[in-house]
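Cast an eye over this sequence plus tokens and explain the fold to me:
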Amino acid sequence: MSSGPPNSLRTALPRLNDRMSAVENIARIEALKDEFAHTITLVELGEGTCGTFAFDLWNDADYALVALKFNVFAGKQFFAWVATRLEPILSPEPGALVMYWCGSEPMHVGLITAGDTLDQARVRSKWGLMPIYDHGLFEVSIDYGDDPQFFRLPDADGIKKLFLEFAESLVGIMTLDLLLHGPMDIMQLTLDEFLAAPPSATAAPSLLDFYSAIATPFAGEVGPLIRTLSNGYALHEVRGQPWDVLLLDNGSIVGAYVGELLAVDDAYQRKGFTVPLVLAAVDRRPLPRSRKLVAGGRAALTKAWRVAHGFAKNPWP
């Protein structure tokens, strides 16, 4: 979709690799006005990048946390990901997102502020770390490519939800929720809140071979000690996954709470081991957004909650 001013203006505009201050950037664009009669006007210096401006994330606390902790940004990788999830439209319209592509790579984003044709469209965008400008659709650096594509944007909550889904796809749901919400406090949760699953959300039980599913794959993944129990038992983190817990009997894995899988080897059943497994894990993981529980899992979580609240005796104090 090529149109707009001749490439001479687009080539003369500041390039992505140009090193300059905001003041120099403004001066360069102003100086080009006599030569090219462009309509680019300064809006404000602004903060953040083109992505945080267009997606209104520049002042969002959760965005800042994710970016700082995980180096996950509203940049080109996010642009490509979100382009498959937004509603595409054929022509510009006020309030829409414009995403500039160079070949298969998204390079820049902005907001359509006026106009419904390529020639009439006005865009407001932040040029990298430089200021925010109001400009014609093609009054941008040639580095941004010749293929503007248009999308309808959801509301602010919808945009933030998309960004967090993107971050989750990179770092995992447990890691992301721990950062944003912290570990759950079982003492502040009702039983229903802790279970996070209505009675109707019951999964069918599945056959599990403990050694092939847990003991063998996790044999080399035993992490730091959490606490010792009596009789040679001990609880350990899974290496690299501190929210997951392994139960060891003199060095051998005999139980685990990994993700939402809570399992104890058959020879160690009916000894109350699910209680210490659950209670060790809840201090290390966020409250799940939802669960689908088998009957045995619901019973085990309920017992752990009752022990934590003093309504039942702790089998492994």
